[in-house]
């Protein structure tokens, strides 16, 4: 909302020397959010005056251009000047704006005498664009009679110089979308008198008679509808310069007098107004919901298919406007309109907001209605518009006024007199609280507790704590004491928090960069993962009001978010990376979730209410995801590069698990989005907690990441639950190690992990480590079989092992592998 300071001064007694910056600071202190300060016309300097065109001789030049050589009377002080003007609308007798040599126009444009088209042009006759008062530059600005005399200061006449304060209006400050609302807060902030423009015109002279007939079928969506009619209006009457300039400074474009008056009153009072050409209306105005198949061409020249939820303004022909959003073309006020029906209605916020979003048609009207407009304004605003139309455009106000409905009653709120003091920590007695509430327009009665009726322009005040906020902003937020809460002794991070931080350090040590991503996915993301139609990961919760229509669901897997980050890095030239993400996923399960209760806001929810809230939430386990691609180790003098692969993804998971004191066992599996045959299921104590491996080529191509990208995702909560309370330090022995290698031939379908587990079981306590270092398939191994080579390391803590002890342990390990997996020593 852009508010000219000069307009504020009409309604509040601002100190003469109050700077705009100081006023903005005071308004910020009472809750209005400052966006920016501007000073239109501040750079205008020098002799910018009104002038009378004495003569305008038409001249045609060799290049085909026509100009006018004008003699302009600039008043007694500046005399007469010859000026070349290229505009075609200048004529003798016109009152114009003249920038004489030495003038600086808006934008820092200097004016000097110069030779052009055979004359010394001693200044410039200005257009709206050059003055910063409009966009028209094809013709000069011709002022209406009575605007002033030659030699008058044009900057004063046109109100070129002003200070404008722009606010970002929060949804709960809808009243500030008007000069009236900002002026009221200015009076509150400065302690000066405020004159309410709504009260000045509140009396309707002939309210007992009806005006244009109106029927309201949905009184909940439209509790008040008011009309007044003006006839004999002069459609050629110009908008006065003062009104056009104020509308422009407030961020809107002057159009024509009838439209400008409705916009002016909306900006002043905050009540949207609409005008109809009475000659184009057919039958009574009816407010109702849309019917199937109805269409409407709105004022922006777009034909719209209407939804049954749309609230409409109709006549006998059908829809003539979207209520509270935009009118229709069929009844638009035009250049020959002489009779105008003024509509001032109050529409409920929800239907207007949904209609505006449904049709993607935000307007100044819908912006106000969806935040909440004072329901007592329609009669005042209708009268104000009618009076201005008559005063500025001639005509008369027809007898009678139509008022359908009445403003809904405002419920009272009971609040303890000491609640503001208890909540804010400020020493606020009951008298101060009552005075503050009355200052913002509340009606207060009683003592213990106080009974408060909020003002009609504050629909956001609905509970005692809203009243506390009002008291606090009047008393001053700066008086709220800064008190640090006392930290309870003996508390710190929880076990889960400590372990999660440790996991982050382990990932960093493994070379991973942790990223942050939004927890949202779309159907296209799940399709790109190649998930089956019945995959549990497709059972995702859909948000009622998502940030993006492309990702309207809560994530059931971290893969899309991490792949999107990786693709962004690829687009920025990163060819190798190791990324990690720790975040919750949302798993609703197969049964419908129960409805969540709405807890009270004035007291702590009961334990049962908290349990019911928790029951309405989906399972939200925290997952760990790792994504690897490109060179794991770069090339150098030490040798060639080594590319990351599926084994590296498993290795990172094992690094994290070992740091937690947990043993992770990989087992061959098939799971999308991983490549068949290159996917491992990760087990902890026999329980599957995740998968790791190489992504399917189609998944890599779909997300725009390099081929053979590896990915791991596991349930971090399950991993942390398996971690022991204390991870013991590793034991070291000073005794020498005994090394043994074995090569075992097994069927192709036997997993290397199963063979390793059998070897470890058979070797028992003397085995210190076991590592698979080779897999062979070839001529020396029968078809359908493979050779697995393991390095076994034996060590005793108290002695040097003999050859017989080492051989016995090796043979026992091989025997166990033969018994479990059918492994045979390779010849």
What's the count of strands?
Answer: 43
Shape: elongated
Major pleated sheet? 7 strands, mixed
Using the 3D structure, state the CATH architecture of the largest domain: 2-Layer Sandwich
CATH superfamily of the largest domain: Bira Bifunctional Protein, Domain 2
Low-confidence spans: 201-205
Structure commentary:
By secondary structure, this protein is α+β, with helices and mostly antiparallel strands. It folds into six domains: 2-40 and 163-195, 2-Layer Sandwich (Phenylalanyl-tRNA Synthetase, Chain B, domain 1); 48-157, Nucleic acid-binding proteins (OB fold (Dihydrolipoamide Acetyltransferase, E2P)); 214-405, Phenylalanyl-trna Synthetase, Chain B, domain 3 (Phenylalanyl-tRNA Synthetase, Chain B, domain 3), CATH 3.50.40; 414-479, Phenylalanyl-tRNA Synthetase, Chain B, domain 1, CATH 3.30.56; 495-585 and 620-722, Bira Bifunctional Protein, Domain 2 (BirA Bifunctional Protein, domain 2), CATH 3.30.930; 738-825, Ferrodoxin-fold anticodon-binding domain (Alpha-Beta Plaits, 2-Layer Sandwich). The chain has 23 helices and 43 strands. The protein has a seven-stranded mixed beta sheet with strand order 29-32-33-39-38-37-36, with helices on both faces. The protein is elongated and about 125 Å long. Mean pLDDT is 91; it is low at 201-205.
